Amino acid sequence: MSDAPNQGRRALPVGPKLSRDGLLELRSPESSPPVAPRAPETPQLVQAFVSRHRSFFILAAVLVAQLALLVVQITRARILPPAKGWAVTVLVPFERSLRGLTDVTGGSWEAFRNLTEAEDQNHELSARLADDETRIRELSAKAAENERLRLLLDFKARAPFATVPAEVIGASPGENSNTVLIDKGADAGFATDLPVVTPAGVAGKIIAVYPQSAQVLLITDPSSGAGSLVQNNRVQGILKGAGRGLCQLDYVMNQDPVSPGDVVVTSGLDQIFPKGLPLGTVVRVGEGNLYKQIVVRPAVAPDRLEEVLVVTSKPAAPEEARSQAH
Length: 326
What we know:
Radius of gyration: 62 Å
Distance between the termini: 204 Å
CATH topology of the domain at 163-313: Thrombin, subunit H
Strand content: 15-25%
Order of helices and strands: HEEHHHEEEEEEEEEEEEH
Shape: rod-shaped
Strand order of the largest sheet: 3-4-7-6-5-14
CATH class of the domain at 163-313: Mainly Beta
Number of strands: 14
Helix content: 25-40%
Structural class: alpha+beta
C-alpha cells in the first residue's frame, strides 16, 4: 500500500546533452549539475572583430597602398615629376593663399605703421606751426610797437613844443564817456587841460590828474571841444564829439565851401591845443537851417590808442619869439 503512490510515478527521462566529445549524454535532474555557457575561442573573437570593422581595415589598407605608391614614385627618378606635379597641384593653392595672406598682412601692417608715423609727424608739424604762428604774432606785435615808438620819437623830436610820452593803461566803459587812463600823472608834472597827441593828430586833453596816472578826455566825447579850421580854405569852426567814434564840425555857415575829404586841423584859438595839429577828415556834409551839418572822422582812432604824448609847454607866440630874440 505504501509503495503504490511511488509505483504510480515514473521517472521522467532526462533530455539529451551534448558532451565535450560530441556524444549525447542522458543525465537525470538529480545527478547532473548545470553546465556553464562555453566561452568563444580567440580565433572566433578575432574573426568577429574583423568582420565588424571591415570598412576601417579596407580604408587603412587603401591609405597604406597609396602611401607606398607615393614613396615608390618619389624614390624613382623617372616618375618623380608626376609625384612632384601632384604635390605642387595640391600645395600651390595653399602656398599662394598663405603668401597672399602674408602679403596682405604685411602690407596692412606697413600701411598702419606709415599712417601712425604720418599722424605723429602731422602732430609734430601742427605743434611747430602753432609755435611758429605764435612767434610770428609776437614778432609782428613787437614790430608794430617798435614802429609806433619810432614814429612817436620822430614826432617828439620834430614838434615845436615839449612833450612827455605816456602809455594808455585803461579805458572807461560805456559809449557816452570816451576817456582813457595813462600811466603818468602829477609825478610827471601833468595838470588838467594839457593836450594829448599822437603822430597822427590830437587825441584829447587831460581832465583829471592823480599821483601816478591821469584821465584823458578824447575828442570823440560829446563834452569835448577844440577850436578848428578847414585846412584848405581856412574856414573856422568848433570840433565836438558826436559819439560812436565820430566828431562833428559846428558853426560853419551854409555858404562856406566844405566838402568830404577836407582835412580839419586845430586853430589854436581855444588856448589849449597847439595850432596846426590834425583833428580829422570830413566824411559827410549836409545843409542846415543856418549852419552846415559836417561829420568828421577823427585822425586818431580812439579804440587804438596805446602810446601818447602829453604836451607840457606850448610853442611861443610870434611876439614872444621876437622879444626873446631881442
